[in-house]
């Protein structure tokens, strides 16, 4: 396995963990449990961002910027739907 595949697998695993901790935070029954899951979620989000940054720096996770007019069109669509 090469480094790109390993990093991609790592990022996928971290994203799955973020999803689990998000739902655990939402569904937690007590403030202490909520805080524990929330803190862990934010730590995993920090790690996810770090891994993504390393992958992006090597062009292993390219991202294209959306044209501003497309972003504004989608934004307006959702505003209109929310108001109707």
Task: Describe the protein's architecture and organization.
The protein has 84 residues and is mostly helical. It has one domain. Helix content is 81%, strand content 0%. The protein has 3 helices and no strands. Helix 1 (3-27) runs antiparallel to helix 2. The protein is flat and about 40 Å long. The model has no long low-confidence stretch (mean pLDDT 93).
Number of helices: 3
Radius of gyration: 18 Å
- Judging from the principal axes of the Cα atoms, what is the shape? flat
Number of domain modules: 1
* Overall mean confidence score, pLDDT: 93
* Helix-strand makeup class: mainly alpha
Summarize the biggest pleated sheet.
Answer: none
Strand percent estimate = under 5%
Number-wise, the strands total 0
What is the CA-CA span between the terminal residues? 52 Å
Uncertain runs are none
Note the run of SSEs as H and E. HHH
In short:
With 84 residues, this protein is mainly alpha-helical. The chain has three helices and no strands.
Helix and strand topology:
Layout: H1 3-27, H2 31-57, H3 68-83
Notable traits:
84 residues; 0% strand; mainly alpha; 3 helices
